[in-house]
Design a protein that fits this description.
Number of strands: 2
Shape: elongated
Oligomer: single chain
Radius of gyration: 19 Å
Number of helices: 3
Helix content: 40-55%
Order of helices and strands: HHHEE
Structural class: mainly alpha
Distance between the termini: 35 Å
Largest sheet: 2 strands, antiparallel
Length: 89
């Protein structure tokens, strides 16, 4: 799971970006910067590679859902097929 300040840094506008760049480039914050970078790299390598996404799509991993709570096939509710929700051909 991506968490701001743990494995990535979120900014809201250019001013916020500038202040965060200056903050993390300060030698006093070097350990924080390196830690966030290492945890972000680990998250990306372990969970966000192309084949991870392909597995979810091709194997229809119903345990996976996106941030909106939608499954790969939204016309399947609670593990049961619903013809009323199936997409048009």
């Amino acid at each position: 799971m991506m968490v701001d300040g743990v494995n990535f840094v979120l900014y809201h506008n250019m001013s916020d970006l500038r202040s965060k760049i200056l903050y993390y480039l300060d030698p006093l914050n070097e350990e924080k910067r390196i830690g966030i970078g290492q945890r972000g790299r680990e998250l990306a390598l372990n969970h966000h590679r192309v084949w991870d996404q392909a597995e979810r799509v091709f194997l229809n991993d119903m345990s996976y859902h996106n941030n909106y709570g939608l499954y790969n096939k939204p016309w399947i509710k609670n593990g049961e097929y619903s013809p009323y929700l199936e997409p048009a051909a």
